[in-house]
Amino acid sequence: LMVYLYGQPVLPAEEVVRRRGLRALWVAGGPTLARDVLYFCCYYVAYEDVKGPLERRGLPEPLAVLAGGGAAGAVGATLAQPLLPLVASRHEELERILRGTQKRTGSTGELLRHLLAEKGLWSLCTEGLALSLLRAVPLNAMVFLIYHSLLQAVA
């Protein structure tokens, strides 16, 4: 299946650790952390900023929770989008090094400058955004609704 999806087999973690050390498993740790911080920084704020006014206007609570959850997913996915190519490029870079087609990794700053020069800022912010939103909005709407329903059931 991996050959079909990626055109070549994905290297197992054991081989990555043997050839590059344990640290190689976290090669995209910095960009991933930055992406998640951006995502969750505004995630709950967006939820409350949408849900609260809708409830005050008389919208039934489950619908307000769904709308708030969808908004949280949309805001988080939009803010995190520019960092997704950076995370993916870090993983691709490690793959090329392990396969012997690249000698060394550059710094995250070098990689970011390369991506900006190659794709431009607008492309980094919008490429793949529609698919991210298509996944994030309904997923987060349902997550918040289920969480809210479980809290009410337990209380």
Describe the structure.
The protein has 155 residues and is mainly α. The protein has helices at residues 2-6, 13-20, 29-56, 61-80, 84-99, 108-119, 121-126, 129-154. The N and C termini lie far apart (45 Å). The relative contact order is 0.13.
Low-confidence stretches: none
Which of globular, elongated, flat, extended, rod-shaped describes the shape?
Answer: elongated
User: What oligomeric state do these chains adopt?
Assistant: single chain
Q: What is the count of helical runs? A: 8
Judged by helices, strands and strand pairing, the structural class is: mainly alpha
> Portion of residues in helices?
over 70%
Strand content: under 5%
Mean pLDDT reading: 85
Radius of gyration: 20 Å
Taking the sheet with the most strands, its summary is: none
H and E order: HHHHHHHH
Q: How many β-strand runs? A: 0
Q: What is the distance, rounded to the nearest whole angstrom, between the alpha carbons of the first and last residues?
A: 45 Å
Annotation keywords:
155 residues, mainly alpha, 8 helices
Task: Briefly say what this structure is.
The chain has eight helices and no strands. It has helices at 2-6, 13-20, 29-56, 61-80, 84-99, 108-119, 121-126, 129-154.
What is the element layout, followed by pairings?
Blueprint: H1 2-6, H2 13-20, H3 29-56, H4 61-80, H5 84-99, H6 108-119, H7 121-126, H8 129-154
